[in-house]
Amino acid sequence: MDSKILEIHKSLAKTELPEIKSGMKVKVWYKIKENEKWRTTFFEGIVISVKHGQKTLNSTFTVRKIAVDNIGVEMTWPLHSPIIDKIQVLQKPKVRRAKVYYLRERSRKQVRAKLKTTPKKKEVEAVEEQ
Question: Model pTM?
């Protein structure tokens, strides 16, 4: 019985997903069904939590963006959901917490200041050469 369950889990799990951590700025492409047609749209924001790891089928992640008039919008998806088309990682800032729920109380400008991005390799090499 257990081997059958494991086979089903392996067949449903996605293998081409990037490693997602809290604090990352991501763009999630997902499918929406309108009447009989499916269309693909994206949701761009900051990952505020990743729950249950990345290897299990019941793992989820929450993305938050700040819309017009500083209204926060959050969406939570199962990581291995067939609705998710792809996930692009846009920024990888240095964050010291596993859950960055404290960003909920902050404005867009405060969030940008709080999540400072780490320098890229090319920038580090250019500084070291000088």
Answer: 0.78
